[in-house]
Amino acid sequence: MGDPRARAARRRNVMSASQVLDAKLEEEGRLLFAQECTFVAGAVSFDTLPKQGLPEVAFAGRSNVGKSSLVNALTGRRTLARVSNTPGRTREINFFRLDGRLMLVDLPGFGYARVSRGDTERWGELVHAYLRGRPNLRRAMLLIDARRGVMKPDREAMETFDKAAVSYQLVLTKCDKLKPAERAETFARVAEEARGHAAAHPETIATSAITGEGIARLRAALVGLARPPRP
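User: That's the sequence. What structure does it adopt?
Assistant: Structure tokens below.
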């Protein structure tokens, strides 16, 4: 069976190496997201999408889930992405170029009942066309309101990503609104649901745009998708 002390030492070494790697990725993420981030375009149709080039990461989620707030928190800017208290306000696909290495893509929110059926269908068709026709899309970040958990519109979005063979990762938002026990329970349920989808990334990340919780971890996850820095 081996020496228990030796096994314990090996476990500590593995944990130490993992912690060093996490710290390295978090620092790389901090440096990347501290760079210039500029608005590129707002596309209202497939024909108006900007030319492909940089790797892209798309942010998707129900209306008012906090997509724009999260993008602003990631980049350390308060007004990069427009934040509105009116659900369904984002009516186009917005593109932001980060340091010439990564494109951040803010998708229209889904699942808001007061938006007209015509608008809902039009936005849905645009998003589906984007997902199908964007080979440089590296990953979609599907934002889940921690207060609500995974709801029917979220499951439909997950099925859409699965069918389009788009890699996606679940990100809990507004975690500051929950008590620790509630957060732990919600996190466990969401992570378990992700495990049932082939295209879902195995790691779920809990965040808060207000407190900054999880922002460093999310940056670390995204830095690996960016184009390498120029020598």
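The chain has one domain: 4-223.
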